[in-house]
Amino acid sequence: MSISFNKIILVGRLTRDPETKFATSGTQVTSFSLAVDRDYPKDSNEADFIKISTFGKTAEFVAQYMTKGRLVLVEGQLRINKWEKDGEKRQMAEVVASRVKFMETKAQTNGSNHGSTMSRNEPNDDTAFFGSDDAGQSDEIPF
Question: Which three-class secondary structure state does DSSP give residue 94?
Answer without folding.
Answer: strand
